[in-house]
């Protein structure tokens, strides 16, 4: 394989990332944001209006990344957007020949990271924009999150309350919940992309998509019934509040173990991709595209 060149890897990633950003499939993000607003942001804002108190502008985003329903929809939307990743056609094959396999693989990793971060960033910007007129900027949980149930006990079961469970604000500072929720959801989505990359290089792309769908669907189902088997799937590790009880400081599942879970699987997929790439014959692919 050709000598590794960071400049070539960045160039490869940037060219393909720009094509992805302007793909017609990006309309999915708009549809997703509309759904997120009605599903997550409006219920929290309704509670704020009822209580007459502002929310922290970060709370809707934290709620989005800790909602079992939305962590079914968000990965499925993401999987749809990157379903052709890594893209291999006549133009990309010739590009691979020019930059070399190593640089192409590094470029794909950079592109995957850029796609993942930009996807979450778009959701973040939209959620903050939707909350800014009813919120404040600060490092503390709002009274809407921490005191709403005590002031309106008859509303304890409403959806806005469920979006910000006690497991979050009793166990973590707002900044910690924001940072850890973001990192783990990014890791979850990046892991899905790594599965597509690894299985595409080994010429089993359809199997990769099926496995991703299986992980999303079964992970969501097991989380919904709070089965201990949910810790076998990445979704449970990406939902921060599942790691804690409502009041006790002792975690149900240490956050460090979730970080280790993602690190081990992503590293294993990377090693598998490198090994498979050495055996990958692009000439045979070129004759098929």
How much helix is in the residues? 55-70%
**Could you tell me the radius of gyration in angstroms?**
21 Å
Q: How is the biggest beta sheet arranged? A: 2 strands, parallel
Measured by DSSP, the beta-strand proportion falls in under 5%
Order of helices and strands: HHEHHHHEHHHHHHHHH
Low-confidence stretches: none
Class based on secondary structure composition and strand pairing = mainly alpha
For the record, give the distance between the C-alpha atoms at the N and C termini, rounded to a whole number: 22 Å
Tally the helices.
Answer: 15
Topology:
Layout: H1 6-21, H2 27-51, E1 55-56, H3 59-64, H4 70-81, H5 90-99, H6 101-131, E2 135-136, H7 143-146, H8 148-151, H9 159-163, H10 166-169, H11 174-201, H12 205-224, H13 234-238, H14 255-278, H15 282-286
Helix pairs in contact: 1-6, 2-4, 2-6, 4-11, 4-12, 5-6, 6-11, 11-12, 11-14
Q: What labels would you give this structure?
A:
two-stranded parallel ribbon, 15 helices, 69% helix, 1% strand
């Amino acid at each position: 394989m050709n000598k590794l060149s960071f400049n070539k890897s960045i160039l490869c990633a940037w060219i393909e990332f720009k094509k992805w950003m302007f793909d017609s499939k990006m309309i999915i993000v708009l549809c997703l944001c509309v759904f997120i607003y009605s599903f997550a942001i409006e219920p929290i804002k309704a509670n704020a209006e009822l209580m007459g108190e502002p929310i922290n502008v970060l709370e809707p985003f934290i709620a989005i990344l800790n909602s079992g329903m939305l962590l079914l929809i968000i990965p499925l939307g993401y999987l749809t957007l990157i379903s052709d990743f890594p893209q291999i056609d006549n133009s990309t094959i010739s590009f691979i020949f020019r930059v070399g396999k190593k640089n192409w693989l590094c470029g794909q990793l950079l592109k995957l990271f850029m796609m993942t971060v930009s996807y979450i960033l778009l959701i973040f910007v939209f959620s903050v924009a939707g909350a800014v007129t009813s919120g404040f900027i600060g490092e503390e949980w709002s009274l809407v999150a921490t005191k709403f149930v005590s002031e309106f006990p008859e509303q304890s079961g409403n959806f806005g309350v469920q979006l910000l469970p006690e497991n979050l604000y009793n166990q973590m500072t707002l900044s910690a919940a924001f940072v850890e929720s973001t990192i783990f959801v990014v890791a979850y989505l990046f892991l899905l992309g790594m599965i597509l990359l690894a299985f595409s290089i080994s010429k089993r792309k359809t199997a990769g998509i099926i496995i991703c769908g299986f992980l999303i669907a079964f992970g969501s189902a097991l989380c919904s019934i709070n089965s201990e088997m949910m810790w076998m799937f990445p979704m449970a590790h990406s939902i921060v509040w599942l790691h804690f009880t409502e009041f006790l400081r002792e975690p149900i599942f240490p956050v460090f173990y979730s970080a280790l879970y993602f690190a081990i699987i992503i590293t294993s997929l990377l090693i598998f991709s490198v090994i498979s790439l050495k055996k990958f014959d692009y000439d045979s692919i070129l004759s098929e595209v």
